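Contributing new complexes? Match this layout with protoporphyrin IX containing FE.
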Amino acid sequence: MSTAETSATRYGGIAVALHWIIAVCLLVSIILGLIIGDVEESASTERVLAIHKSVGITIFVLMLVRLAWRLTHRTPPLPASMPTYQRALAALTHALLYLTLLVMPLVGYVAVAARGRETQFFGLFDVPQMAPLSRMLSQNATMVHVYGQYVIYALLAAHIGAAFFHHFVLRDDVLARMLPRRSPEKNAPWTTF
Ligand code: HEM
Ligand code: HEM
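Output block (do not edit by hand):
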């Protein structure tokens, strides 16, 4: 296993960039998804759906890259004082986040493709039609997609709650090591005066 990207105490640049780019994409895709779910179908909801689908596919591709990164790199060790059950909960939440962020775009795609509708990636090209045409498959995939959002909300509440708990209550470096590194000049004493 390589440690080139992740130092002993913090996540490396690629892991941090992927974490925050995916977090922003997820927020955008949830907001756009809720807009689609909330308003009557129209030309503008079609446009919102097109962006929602493209951002969702971006998340899928970035999650595959992230999974490959994760399987080939070590993560920094958690604080030694952290009890085993908390380590297990953190590992479980992270694994479920990986799983749901791959399954949500997949079932979203199947919901659309099984209905015979095309999916374009930001108007650049068509995503190949890879699902059999089936009304039932489309309905089931839509149901998983719509209810899947609540799994994501629950996981994010636990995840973000834990990050804040570490930072503000335990006051350890668990949140800091997933934040972009400040440039060495900014930390250097000669820049402070
Ligand atoms: C991680 C990625 C994604 C997330 C978190 C996500 C989330 C959501 C959410 C929250 C909704 C609103 C559901 C509701 O309350 O009605 C929605 C709707 C929808 N999404 Fe996604 N989505 C993602 C990716 C995709 C992708 C890649 C596609 C298709 C290629 C897609 C297609 C749809 C469709 C068609 C709807 C409307 C469903 C309906 O109400 O009939 N989504 N999505
Ligand atoms: C909003 C979407 C988010 C998603 C999908 C997400 C997902 C993930 C995943 C899958 C990991 C595990 C990384 C790995 O080891 O492979 C992780 C780590 C982490 N995330 Fe998030 N995250 C999100 C938002 C946030 C936010 C808002 C915070 C802070 C408030 C945060 C703080 C952290 C921290 C501190 C870690 C490292 C935990 C450790 O050291 O083990 N995340 N995140």
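Reviewers usually confirm one structural detail per submission. For this one: Residues 19, 22-23, 26, 70, 75, 78, 90, 94, 97-98, 101, 156, 159-160, 163, 174-175, 177-178 surround protoporphyrin IX containing FE (ligand 2) (CB under 6 Å).
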